[in-house]
Amino acid sequence: MQVIKASAGSGKTYRLAYEYIRNVIEEPYKYRSILAVTFTNKATDEMKWRILSELNALAQKKEHGYTTMLQKDIPGITPEEIAEKAKQALTLILHDYSRFNVLTIDRFFQKIIRAFIRELGIESDYSIDFDYSYLLNMAIDKMIETMQNDSELRENLDGFIEESLNRNQSYLHLKEELANFAFILFSEEFNETELLKRKETLVEFFSRTEKLYQEASTKYQQRAAEAVAYIAHAGIPIEHFHYGKSGFVHFFYKTAAGIFEDYGKRVQDALNPDASWGKKIPDEVKKDLQPILIELCTFWNQQKAFLITAKEILKYYRSFLLLEDIGHFLNEICAERNVMLLPATTQLLKALIADNDAPFIYEKCGNRY
Question: How much is the pTM?
């Protein structure tokens, strides 16, 4: 195996095209058993054009950098032989273009799936659709039509609208917002996460997260509220504390109001037993409030990751419940049209090889490549 490492713009296409050409110069008929895989259609087109144009240049005996490289890698070959082999390979490829296999990785997966139609239980006339937006909009339209007779679905849609408005704090174009959010259905991460695929599990997860978040945040908030109440009862103006409203004391007020954020250097300094809290702040006040400040900072340091993560998760509660509904209607649309979405192909292949040895795959496609 030869591994070529290269960064962007360093000549990967040039080098990979050369590897292809070197193989067909050695043996022109070898083009039938070479598979070149790229990530994008643009890269595929570029690779095909490069290979054919380079073969054409070699066949016409034009001054070419590949000639020197080929003579070095294929012992004893002459420029005349290179030209003859290039001409032969170019003719073969152009007359048998369907065997010129420079493909995107997605297209390659499609070829494999078509070889396993019987094993996967797929209808022989199925097609793989790349137009996600079109199918997704059809699914959303069908869901909205169904909503009138489905109270749970209507509740989830209402929740999605409310959550979207809370996140964006602006007007909402419902179908566009739904389509943008639902595109997660086509991501590999979503398809790898079983939690997001089952509504019952999702409800249980969100309920548990909400309970734990409420317990932690309430305890944190109430402790800060005790400090605020103490300051109010003592009749101490906030301006008497160091830096006033922009000082450490604001941490009490902010936390009591449910705003959970990192504390800064002024709060950190106020934790010091020797720190001055302000010339007009009695020692007794500092003695009573500093333990609460220490407790709050300790709690935040320990629970920060959970509080931030849980708050973000809970923003999307109804949205993810609705996502499962959209996925259901999308599957119905695909079944009606006998269409398979491209992301589903990798899941099918995983399921296919999960309990089988690799040679099972090679039996189907290994005799060609």
Answer: 0.55
